[in-house]
Specification:
Elements: E1 5-8, E2 11-14, E3 17-20, E4 26-31, E5 37-44, H1 58-65, H2 70-73, H3 77-83, E6 88-93, E7 98-105, H4 109-122, H5 129-148, H6 153-163, H7 178-183, H8 186-196, E8 202-208, H9 214-222, E9 244-250, E10 257-264, H10 272-283, H11 289-297, E11 301-311, E12 314-323, H12 329-341, H13 346-363, H14 367-381, H15 387-395, H16 399-409, E13 416-422, H17 423-426
Parallel strand pairs: 4-8, 9-13
Antiparallel strand pairs: 1-2, 3-4, 5-7, 5-8, 6-7, 10-12, 10-13, 11-12
């Protein structure tokens, strides 16, 4: 038996094997017998980026719906898992995928496989309007609780509206719009299920203390599914936005915020690693130039953060500055402009690359982190062992390649800025 993680030239490789079932389902098995646990993960290649313009939030709504009925399971989905000893179980929706997982005692593998196979192949007969109505209410409540009635929630929507034109799938967030969620019908849900939740559009990853008969168990629960075809996914290209500056009143925010965003490369695209390194270097506590000038030297900001997102349809680069009460926004913008125009310091780049690699290697100690890395590789590159190549790209980052990425992606003429104005400031109090 090979080691779960092996290193070659200092780069980690995840030991795994994969096969494709006649139905089209991709199966990846990653063995690690250190503890008697097994992680079961299914990712479907569908997210909010695949939705109709009039059915935003549908992938996330479906995540809530996509469980077998309690009467068939002998209880609620998560209650059944808890009784069986599951230490973790959840689901999530992003722009590019919908994910389901559970971490079980290894002797309970059959239960986890049965639950995932049941919803993959037998969802439709037990679905009805009552379940749809109940979950529509849950999802709309989640939108209010997590996006509308929280600090900087309004900013979240304003950024997407400024970056993307009408009709672009990234103009709305995965949570969706209230009217679209409420308008969903039973027929809509079943059509979505039959299009996107076919075996050929999914990857099943089993990781941990897998038994010797794991292939036979997978075949038992998934092997009878008919052959399916992976659906064609829509492709949308966002044109560079015109420079805009919007102010958003926020009755929940205590501090003002200046948030700048630029479009960026897609996942694994040219410049992805450079912009990730740049944003890490900009805001490193104690050494990052934006942190040092805004938080320490001028004390204009309470907090400075920067990050990137990268997916199938493109990416984004963000800088968010939370202003101290009474700070001059013009002075903050001037410093931000100066730092964005500067060449990148070599030592800062080296520190950021080292930090990225160290955090990635450290995260390999967790089974489910390895599962997510395998799934991400399958999603974006059809490669379960993508991690080493990705870290190798980070090792090739230099100040020159970062400067080239800045010149290509962070053009001031194509950035947008959203300023959050706290209610106290907006009212003049």
């Amino acid at each position: 038996m090979s080691e779960p993680v092996r290193f070659a030239n200092g780069l980690p490789h995840l030991a795994a094997r994969r096969r494709t079932l006649p139905s089209g389902l991709e199966v990846v098995i990653h063995e690690d017998h250190a503890v008697p646990q097994i992680g079961v993960s299914v990712w479907y290649r569908v997210g909010s980026g695949d939705e109709r313009p009039d059915r935003t939030g549908f992938a996330h709504l479906f995540e809530h719906l996509f469980k077998s009925p309690p009467e068939r399971l002998g209880g609620h989905h998560y209650e059944v898992l808890k009784r069986a000893g599951a230490s973790d179980a959840n689901a999530s929706t992003s722009i590019d995928r919908t994910a389901y997982h559970e971490v079980m005692p290894s002797h309970q593998l059959a239960l986890a496989l049965w639950l995932e196979a049941d919803r993959m192949g037998y969802f439709a007969p037990a679905f009805d309007e009552a379940r749809l109505i109940a979950q529509q209410a849950v999802v709309r409540a989640e939108r209010r609780q997590r996006y509308e009635n929280v600090p900087y929630g309004a900013e979240h929507f304003a950024v997407a509206l400024a970056l993307y034109p009408d009709g672009h799938p990234l103009r709305h967030t995965p949570i969706g719009r209230h009217d679209d969620i409420q308008a969903a019908t039973v027929d809509d849900v079943l059509a979505f299920y039959r299009t996107w939740y076919v075996p050929a559009n999914a990857t099943l990853v089993l990781a941990g203390d897998v038994p010797p008969d794991v292939d036979a168990q997978v075949d038992k629960f998934f092997g009878s599914f008919p052959r399916s075809q992976r659906p064609e996914r829509p492709v949308a290209v966002a044109p560079p936005p015109a420079p805009t500056r919007d102010a958003v009143p926020d009755r929940f925010a205590a501090l003002g915020r200046i948030h700048r965003v630029w479009l960026g490369p897609p996942a694994l695209g040219d410049g992805e690693s450079e912009l990730d390194v740049l944003t890490t270097a900009w805001c490193a506590t104690g050494t990052g130039p934006l942190w040092r000038r805004l938080v320490y030297e001028t004390q204009l900001a309470q907090r400075v953060s920067a990050w990137t997102t990268n997916g199938r349809l493109g990416g984004e680069t963000h800088v968010a500055i939370d202003l101290k009460t009474g700070s001059d926004p013009a002075a903050v913008r001037a410093i931000l402009d100066e730092e964005c125009a500067k060449s990148t310091d070599e030592r800062a780049i080296e520190r950021a690359v080292t930090r990225r690699e160290a955090s990635t290697v450290w995260s390999l100690s967790t089974l489910m982190n390895r599962v997510k890395m395998i799934q991400r590789g399958m999603l974006y590159a059809n490669d379960h062992d993508m991690l080493a190549g990705e870290l190798a790209r980070y090792r090739e980052v230099t100040p020159a390649t970062v400067d080239a990425a800045i010149a290509r992606w962070l053009d001031p003429a194509h950035g947008i800025e959203v300023t959050t104005v706290p209610a106290s400031a907006a009212s003049g109090s």
